[in-house]
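Why run this: before we spend reagent on co-expression, it is cheaper to look at a predicted model of the complex and decide which construct boundaries make sense. The entries below are exactly what would go into the expression plan.
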Amino acid sequence: MPGRGAGMSEDTRDIEALIDLMARLPGLGPRSARRAVLHLIKKRRQQLIPLAETLARVGATARECVTCGNIGTADQCDICRSEKRANGQICVVEDVADLWAMERGQAFRGRYHVLGGTLSALDAVGPEDLRIPQLVARIADEGVGEIILALPATVDGQTTAHYIADQLPGVTVTSLAQGVPMGGELDYLDDGTITAAFKARRAF
Amino acid sequence: MIEWRDEGAVLAVRTHGETAAIVEVFTPSHGRHAGVVRGGAGRRLGPLLQPGAQLDLRWAARLDDHLGAYTIEPLRSRAALVMGDRLALAGLAAVCALLAHVLPEREPHPTLYARTMALLDLLGQAEVWPLAYLQWEVALLDELGFGLDLSACAVSGTNEDLCYVSPRSGRAVSRQSAGAWADRLLPLPPVLAGQGEATGAEIARALGTTGWFIEHRLVKGLGDRPLPAARARLVEAIARQA
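The model came back. Tokens follow.
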């Protein structure tokens, strides 16, 4: 039987290598990787071959957008190319995953800027390690009127938000609200979230 | 199985695997102590493990020198209260980063712990916090064996016109005694000696002197790593307050 710990033969070496690679993916361990590989092999034509072809294609074409840092298959992503998205607003996010989450919600129709991390004392991440100079340059180039900071509600995230706000005099800088999540029950919230929600209360 | 129970404040968190976290806490009886928190990088516990958060901790390991694992209960969150306050946030980040940087592992410092909690309790009070932070840095140096003696001149014994600190001894030097050596000495702003007006600019100048001792005395013995940038950002924020 292929998999970690099992005896490896010439026959199963490639399958073994595939299981090892899959086991390194987030959310998968050796056992679930073995199950996934077995599933793919059983569904070779419907899933394994299309997956392999798509992986090869994405591997060859995926790149960072030169403007915003989003990931796409062209030098500039769809959002940066679209004239409809040039509404004078840029939403600053930490990571591409955050950009994709915002797009899923379809609440924002402007453009994005991916920082590539947050300032971190522990990991020695400084402003020079983030895409902050590119953001400052974009503000002049694209005639931006508002920067929306959608950074994590953590010490590092908010430290980064304050730092960016300091770098952008003369531009309206806003940030996402913090408080009770949709469907959230107060009893289950931590005291910090309740405090933030109280501070951001609004007229009803 | 070795176990203990204590309270502590979170200094730093690193993800460990997909859902666990290695958390460094500052406790009164066990000093700076790391351990794994299962689920610490997950949705439920992740928000609780912000720097400065006070926790009830139960640590267990098979042997004393093992990393061990923490079971945590939140006591008090501090980060959420200061998110919108630039100076307080910079202060919280600087205190936690500095402690994580300079404290020896597993060495109890109950007095420093009490002072740190008192300092963190003052977060958000912009009119008193910078001075409290300066006094805390002086106490940190003292606690770790590099205390400053600013009571009298190291050369003449006078306590008049003390303007400098000797980088070698950490003792005050008067203007007259400094003479031609003045440019080799560190400035002693009155606020550092507990006198004069505590303006942002003066406190930032005093933090320049304490920072020198932290960088050249404390950190030198800890592998010569650069001081956390969070402290420099705090000093900048305090200077800007002037």
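The domain at 5-61 of chain A is CATH 1.10.8 (Helicase, Ruva Protein; domain 3). The longest strand of chain A covers residues 89-93. Bring this page to Monday's planning discussion.
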